[in-house]
Every structure is written in C-alpha cells, then in structure tokens.
Amino acid sequence: xxxxxxxxxxxxSAFVAREIASLIKEKNKLNxxxxxxxxxxxxxxxxxxxxxxxxxxxGLSFKNVISFNLDEYYPMDHEDVNxxxxxxxxxxxxxVDILPENVHIPDGILSREQIEGYCRDYDNKIKSLGGLxxxxxxxxxxxxxxxxxxxxxxxxxxxxxxxxxxxxxDAARDFGGKENVPRSAITMGVKSxxxxxxxxxxxxxxxxxEVVKAAVEGPVTAELPASFLQNHPDALFVVDPxxxxxxx
Length: 248
Ligand code: F6R
Known about the structure:
Active site: 71, 144, 149
Shape: globular
Order of helices and strands: EHEHEEHEHEEHEHEHE
Family: Belongs to the glucosamine/galactosamine-6-phosphate isomerase family. NagB subfamily.
CATH class: Alpha Beta
Strand order of the largest sheet: 1-10-9-6-2-3-5
Number of strands: 10
Strand content: 15-25%
CATH architecture: 3-Layer(aba) Sandwich
CATH topology: Rossmann fold
Oligomer: single chain
Radius of gyration: 17 Å
Largest sheet: 7 strands, parallel
Function: Catalyzes the reversible isomerization-deamination of glucosamine 6-phosphate (GlcN6P) to form fructose 6-phosphate (Fru6P) and ammonium ion.
Bound molecules: fructose -6-phosphate
Protein name: Glucosamine-6-phosphate deaminase
Number of domains: 1
Distance between the termini: 13 Å
Structural class: alpha/beta
Domain Glucosamine/galactosamine-6-phosphate isomerase: 8-231
C-alpha cells in the first residue's frame, strides 16, 4: 500500500482535505451526492479543521454530502463527552452545512436486540448509495481500523465488537481510568471499508510508527486488520515523519 510522508500533520491533513474538497466540488457540479466514511479520534482533527476553513472561506458546500461514521462505543449516550456523536458535532458537523438527515453514526443507545437489524440497515444504506466514495481512517496501536480489532475478517460487516486490551488502555485517559472505558463498540466492518472507492489512512507521531510499518510492510493478516488495505486498489497512508520513521 502506498505511503506519502508529509513534513507535518498540518501538511498531510491539508492534502486529504483538498482531495475531499475537489471530489465534492466535482460531484456538486453534476448535482451528485458524495458519500464519505468518517473517523473520530485525534488523527482527523486537523482534516476537519481544514474542511471547515474551506467551507467558510471558499464556500465549499456539504449539502450534497452523505456521511457514515466508522464507529461508536457501546453503550454510549449521544451527549456523553466521550461519545462520537458529540465529537462529530463539535469538531465538524456543527460548523458546516451538512444536512442532519444525511449524517449517520452508529448508535450507542440501542437495546441489544436492536443492534443486529440496525447494523444490517447501516450496511444496506451504504450499499444503496453505491458505496463510499472516500473513507477516512486512523489506525489504532492494536492494528485496528474503525474498531475492527485483531481477529476481524476481510468479509466482516457492521456489528457489535469487543474492544482490544490495547485500545481500552489507549482510551483510559479520555475516560478517567481503564475501568470506565466501555468494553464494546459498534463498528463498520472491514468489508464496507474495503469496498470504498478511495481510502486515506492518517497516522501521526512516533506512537504509530511500529503499527504503520507492520500494516504497510508486514503480512496481510487478520491479526492486524489495517494490513488488509494492502489489497485495496486505491488506499494511501498519509503520515508525518515520526509515524513513517520505521518504514524501509
Ligand atoms: C475512530 C476509529 C479508530 C481511530 C484509531 C486511532 O473513529 O475508528 O480506529 O481512528 O483508534 O485513534 P487516534 O486518531 O485517536 O490515534
């Protein structure tokens, strides 16, 4: 899978923002919708900041954008400080003109019985729109994409999953201790991610160097789900020098 090393995360994020903005502009001209797969966490923060700037300063409209977020903790209230619903509102959606009915984020308040049907609907909606035009990803130290943890298969669909121990440790700071981190999440499956037309995986900082090397240069294995991207026809790792430091 190709890698582009940018001088810093601002440059890398600006690159991905330009790619997204030009696709939206192109589709807007044709009166077509753009279907985006979106991530939360620290990795896409500057991307959202830049897209907001392009919206405000250059008039890029998100009215024809339909979005699907990768994941949400389960259980999780929408208003919780750690909810990905809240994250997306605060860091992106409330600053642009995307229509609320076009936003999709896995729901953390479903009952157990509702989850399976909800997940089928989530995938069917993506399919009915012709799949994702662009999928944005971060990468976890466990090798996860979305919350597809080690053991996830290439054909896995949207579903309820258990979080990996490493992921729980990394989330502990946000939740004020490991014991407060939800053990489960609802995540888009590897399948929809792999069917996206284009994929950008962003990784910054030395903490990601080891997992980036393994995902890019190691074997394709369910033990490191990000390695599945080696089989994607149009995926790109966008990294800073620290995250790319172990690449040969
Ligand atoms: C978030 C997600 C996760 C994160 C990954 C990296 O929606 O799907 O896979 O992208 O855990 O998190 P950060 O960016 O906080 O290092």
